[in-house]
Structures are given as C-alpha cells and as structure tokens.
Specification:
The protein has 13 helices and eight strands. With 275 residues, it is of the alpha/beta class. Strands 3-2-1-8-7-6-5-4 form an eight-stranded parallel beta sheet. α6 runs parallel beside α9 and α8 packs across α10. The longest helix has 18 residues. The protein starts with a helix and ends with a helix. Bound molecules: phosphoenolpyruvate.
Length: 275
C-alpha cells in the first residue's frame, strides 16, 4: 500500500463513526420454515459497538420484522416513492414507519438492473433524489447502494469514481439537508457481488477514500467525516478483518454470508479491527 491510500484524509473522524453491518437476504430463503434459523443468526450479532440491519425478502418482512433483537434493524430491500395507494407490488415508507422500521435499502445493483431485468433499470435520479428524498421526508434512514460494473473497474479509479459520482450526485441536496446520521453509503462493486471475488483492501480503501473526498467537496467536510461507507461484495469472515482495518471502510453490506452463522463473526471482526 502507498501511504497515501492507506491513510484516511479524515483520520480523527474515523474514530467517531460507529461500525455498521447489514445482511441482505435478497430473494432467500425458499421456505418460511427456514426463517427462524436466519433470524437466530442475526440475533447472535453483538450490537454493543456496531449497528446491524437485515434486509429480508419483501414477502418475509412482515413475518420476521418483530423477531429481531434490539439493535438489529429490519430494513426493506426497496421502497416506492409515492406512499400508499394503487402501486401494485410496491412497499412504501408510511408502511415501514407504522411497523416501527427505521432503515431502508435503496439502489442495490440488482434493483438497478444488474441481474438482467428486461425492464428499464432504476436511474440514479430516481434512487438518490426521488426515493431517498421521499424516505427521508417520511422519517426513515437510508442505505444508498452504489458501485461500478467490471468494465469500468478495469479502466481504473477515475472511471470508477465517475460512476460513483453519477450514482451519488442526485442525492447531494438531501445529504446537505438531512446529514450523515440519516444516510449510509454502501459501496458495492457490481463485479464482486455474489461472485466470490472480493475487492482487495487496497481497492476498497482507495475507492472509499475517494468517495469521502467527493462528499467533502459536494456536501461538506463535516458530512464526509461523519458518513458511514460500507463495503459490499463477497464480504465474509475470511476477509472482514483486512477490509475492516481500512480506515475509510466503516462496515459491510453482506449478501451470501448473511444467510450463515458467520454473520456474527463478521460483526466481531469488524469491531475488533476498529477497536
Ligand atoms: C449484496 O448483494 O449486497 C452483496 C454484497 O452480496 P454478496 O455478499 O453475496 O456478494
């Protein structure tokens, strides 16, 4: 590592950011009978020094949302931008607030069309401006997922940052208005999601640092120092310590490994890396 990449520009503020780990169950499990086991895995996570959230499948949210321990937040995987009404197949913030939910994930690459949706992908404007603004106004907190596909990563960090900035830019006014307590950024390189290929700690740190630098310029130094940036993409108990040691990596959004007991270890390894 060069000393430039290894260190955070906002070293002091690093200490103040509470680690955060999310488990994205995606369209799993197949059977309702498997839910209790998955809930139990999440409930083994030690939340004393780490925020933990879990994104059950839309069909299962209503079954499990009251089964998590205090400190393990149930966060839907998506949200509409209109509220209640004639929106077949959608979920809205008002329903989430009524159910006592505080967090919602938006902008996952699989919602942006990365698993081959034949319908138009959700745009950055829809996600970071319309949906994020609507959720924040309704009193929810937002996990905003961003990240580049492989052909962009192959072009280098400048091209990667062009995509990240494009993903983030429509949300800048909301970041200015609502602040870092209400928003978490999940940097999830598309090429590492569900592939078993993880970004190296150097790649993750370099990108998180560049995202923070962009936010310092576009929002404010204060926001950039305080906002939590999670890494997502094949994070697991084997790589959590090294990735968690990166000063600008504040946690993980975990897919596959959140369906296993190792989610507890990921939390512990992250907290130990930050201690
Ligand atoms: C995700 O989809 O958010 C994710 C990071 O998945 P995985 O950990 O399985 O790569």
């Amino acid at each position: 590592w060069s000393s430039d990449v290894c260190s955070s520009d906002l070293e002091n503020a690093t200490m103040a950011r509470r680690p955060i780990v999310g488990g994205n169950w995606k369209c799993n499990p197949a059977k309702v009978s498997e839910l209790d086991g998955l809930v139990a895995n999440m409930n083994t996570c030690d939340t004393a020094n780490c925020d933990v959230y879990v994104c059950p499948s839309p069909l299962h949210v209503g079954i499990v949302y009251q089964k998590f321990n205090k400190g393990v937040y149930c966060a839907p995987q998506n949200c509409n931008f209109k509220g209640t009404g004639a929106y077949t197949g959608e979920m809205c913030a008002e329903q989430m607030v009524d159910m006592g939910m505080e967090w919602c994930l938006i902008g996952h690459s699989e919602r942006r069309g990365e698993f081959g949706l034949p319908t138009p992908a959700e745009s950055s404007k829809l996600i970071a401006d319309t949906k994020m603004g609507y959720l924040l106004k309704a009193g929810m907190k937002v996990i905003l997922a961003i990240g580049e596909p492989l052909p962009i990563r192959e072009k280098g960090i400048e091209a990667v940052m062009e995509v990240c900035k494009e993903n983030l830019a429509p949300g800048i006014p909301h970041m200015k208005e609502y602040g870092a307590e209400k928003i978490v950024i999940a940097y999830e390189p598309v090429w590492s999601i569900g592939t078993g290929v993880t970004a190296s700690p150097e790649q993750a740190q370099e990108t998180h640092k560049a995202i923070r630098a962009y936010l310092a310029e576009a929002v404010s130094e204060e926001f950039a120092a305080a906002v939590r940036i999670q890494y997502g993409g094949s994070a697991n108990a084997k790589n959590a310590a090294a990735l968690g040691a990166c000063p600008d990596v504040d946690g993980f959004l975990v897919g596959g490994a959140s369906l296993k007991p190792e989610i507890k270890d990921i939390v512990d390894l992250l907290v130990a890396a930050k201690a």
